[in-house]
Amino acid sequence: MSEKILYSYTALFDTPNQIIKAAKKVKEEGYTKYDVNTPYPIHGMDAAMELKPSLLPYVALVVGLTAAISMIIFLWWQNTIDYPLNIGGKPFFALPAYIPVTFEVTVLSASIATVVAMLFFVFKFPNNVHPLHDTDYMKRVSVDKYGISIQAEDPLFEAEKVKSLFNSLGASSITPIYYSDELVNFKPKILEPKFISFLIILFIVVSGATYITLNKLLFLPPYSWMMVQDKVIAQKTSDFFGGGSGMLTPVKGTVARGFLPYKFDKKPELAAKELVNPLMPVKKNIELGKTKFNIYCSPCHGYHAEGKSRLRGQFPIPPSLHSDKVRNWSDGRIYHVITEGQNVMPSYAHQLSRQERWAIVLYIRALQRSLNAKESDLQ
Amino acid sequence: MSDVIEYTKKKLPANWNKTGIVLFALGLILVILSFMTDVSRSSFNAVVFLTFLTSIGLGSLFWIATEYLSGAVWSTPFRRVAEFLASLLIILPLAALPSYFNLHDVFHWTHLEVVKGDAYLSAKQPYLNVPFFTIRTIAFFLIWIIFYFYITRNSLKQDTTKDQNLTKKNLRWSAIFIPIFALTITFFSIDWLMSLEPHWFSTIFGVYYFAGTALASMAAITYLVVKLNEKGYFVEGLVSDHYYSFGALLFGFLNFWAYIAFSQFLLIWYANLPEETLWFLQKWEGNWLYFSILLIIIHFVVPYFALLSQPAKMDPKRLKFMSLWILFAHYFDLYWISMPTYSEFAFMPGWIELGFIILTIGVIILVFNWKANKENLVPIGDPKLKRGIKFRL
Description:
The complex is a heterodimer of chains A (379) and B (393). Chain A has twelve helices and four strands. By secondary structure, chain A is α+β, with helices and mostly antiparallel strands. In chain A, strands 2-3-1-4 form a four-stranded antiparallel beta sheet. In chain A, helix 8 (268-274) crosses helix 11 and helix 9 (283-301) crosses helix 12. The longest helix of chain A is centred in the first third of the chain and has 28 residues, at 95-122. By secondary structure, chain B is mainly alpha-helical. Chain B has one domain (14-389). Chain B is built from 17 helices and no strands. Chain B has helices at residues 14-37, 39-70, 79-86, 88-100, 103-106, 112-116, 119-124, 130-161, 165-192, 205-230, 240-271, 274-282, 288-306, 310-313, 316-342, 351-374, 385-389. In chain B, helix 1 packs antiparallel against helix 16, helix 2 (39-70) runs antiparallel to helix 9 and helix 2 crosses helix 10. Chain B is globular, with a radius of gyration of 21 Å. The two termini of chain B are 19 Å apart. The model of chain B has no long low-confidence stretch (mean pLDDT 93).
């Protein structure tokens, strides 16, 4: 073992008041390299030692603000330049949506930065040995005593003077602390190749493990069982029906729901004879007809079916639907015109459902009746 | 350290009373004049006036109950300040009258002919109708005054009897009060503030009003405590640990208000439902746009940075200034909630608004002064008092 070097003189006190007094006195005497160790934080100690406020809050502030600003810039770039997506009709740069994320990132970065700064700059990590460690002094001040230690490095340090100072303050025990050069190294180890390679390995292990977990592990059983489902997967063979196909071709004559074929193709007379309006002339149906008529028919036929086109001669003007001819038509005949069109008038089968077509017929009947009211209507 | 706490009762400085009377009289004259010139606008201002006084009074009672429930000691030496402010609750029924007599000008849902033709309003009619509204408001006032009365009476009795059981009794009263407080303040804010826009609804609105209430009442307490402490009204005075507690609570509730205000906005903005966005759209048009932006700055950004650092929270001068600032911010907040209903686009505050602000300050000073001169400013019988004075973080 190499020779022992004096690190400091320590003194133990019995009460918090004594230690505060001692710290004040030591400070007054002009010592700079000294420290106080107590089992719990003692109020007023910062003032007694005239400690400067810690710099950690500034680390938190600077890192937090930087993170907040970078996050906003990142989100702006991501959502307006790199991959603009229309989300719910919101603007690409949607500040309110960014605030929660920015807030989380700010808090996370600030707290991690504070912890890291504390570890490396205050605790001098990775240096992990201190002359006071494992001494009787440290054991006592971790339980019920209050200790102060003045380092030999201090320019004012003289063993006898320090001892008598401690004595005059009423210290209960005074001991010197020695350390060996081999065990305790004050040089910062943060740039040592060993520590740096450790950091690099740690980095590789953590990011590698994350990558493997997210990209490989999750696709192995049992996680992959989630993908085993009884369903047809497009472009994949299926043995459900045999023949490898996931679906069967429909039986001949199959009709899709809501798409019954029209039986009276090019047969207006038959349609007039056989088709019957399934809707009752009640308010609900007539109102539906009115809405649809105003949307689809009124541009050419006019709001009252009188043939007052709003197309300013861009399209042949249709005849009035109040003619005797149309009035004497059956409902099925009008329905046929809407379904198939007539000469230049196009078919409306694609825009209007069957029900809507019949509702329009009802509405046309109501319009016709309004110009040719019966005696009984007026009463 | 002696065990007996030396306390001699001192009257508040005479000029407090004078200032209170002058402000009250001036405010009253301006308010009467404004009711003569523009009833509708004044009634809306009266709603702000009422809800602000409720914030201070009810918020103070909330802080008293919180102290008992949490067993806090640091605030015990100053609890009387909160108790005196809570006596504003007694005058709430009076403060409600100016707007109550003009409900028709303020609340759209009082117009029965409109309600009839409106599917939303007629669906809400079982709740939003004048008789039920009146009953609720009276019930809220009554409940608050009863709690105020019992809790402060027990506290005052302790000054002479030094009976520790009274603290226990108040603990029980506080435990009953807090859930009732949560419900009453929610429905009070729905009735008097949310129903100004009767088509609109927000389930977080009660919490939003509570956040402002807790913040504003703490600001009022902080201001008065720091001010009175300067003149030596508290036994041994405040140390930085007391200041820090006030500063931290103000800072915490500033953030809480911002959090709640933003949550309310974010959800409505995201969902983008017409019946919910109308409230914010209204505040985003005309001059109200500037008010909305100012609200964020006044109610959050400025006080946030002013109180962010630890030394700032312990600086009495900073605390005093920021307390007044926050009180103004809360008034501004209530104003921003209510007034867009009165005038939708171009709108500038004028002398009518000033009159109501002066009256509000006058009322608070007078009520506080009246109580402070009658009772002890320090709860000398409270078993927690000594620990409170010697409080160290």
